[in-house]
Structure prediction request, 252 residues.
Amino acid sequence: MKHELKLFCEKSQLAELRAFISKTLAPTNLNDVSQNQLILAVEEVCANLIIHSHDCDPQSFLLLKVNLNADTIIFEIIDSGKAFNLIEYKSPEVDSVMKERRKGGLGLLLVRKIMDKIEFETNHSINTCRLIKKLNSK
Amino acid sequence: MLTINKTAEEGYLIISLEGEVDASNSVELDEVIQEALNEDIKKILVNGHELQYISSAGLGVFMSYLEDFKENNILFIIYGLNEKVMNVFHILGLDQLMTIKDTKEEAEKSLHEA
Prediction:
């Protein structure tokens, strides 16, 4: 089953994003903790794009597609902003975040810990970030 | 939606979080903790019973103050987190860097023992 959401680039839209994913995952057998992890991982990527690639411009938007399969759940986040390659980005260590008193930097670390596979591609200035969760894993 | 309430108890402050902390409102959490530091409060409890969700924006606020807490001998204890929220702290091992207790009673006990 495929589900789609057009998400405008405002931080206030994150609550709507969570509600959409929660509704989309309802038919799966995932427990509350696992569902929450997936919601969190997708939100972290979207928040990152909204803030850093789109400067919270409410005119621009992201497209989220969720594909529920028998053995995987695939989230595709598509945008046409500045390409942010999640795979090339080096997350800081938790320890340095604390010592440097940084308020950011933990989000993509969470995404890496939660998801089984992350793919990124840019094609004619359309960026696609694909987050893949295998079912019955992790 | 996030609601933050502050309650002054004898000898410590309780910051109660209700709702969801994300990138849209984590600055509110930041302000409340900064205020407590400015007021030179040495014992802070965070009541997470009604906290339904936290993203890295919220975790980052806590993390950014851990060094200040150490330097200023501030006791900072979070309690009452539900399973989903606790799991998010656990994924990054933050439960090893901060004091997190199940109940208010246990949190208060830690304050008295310190």
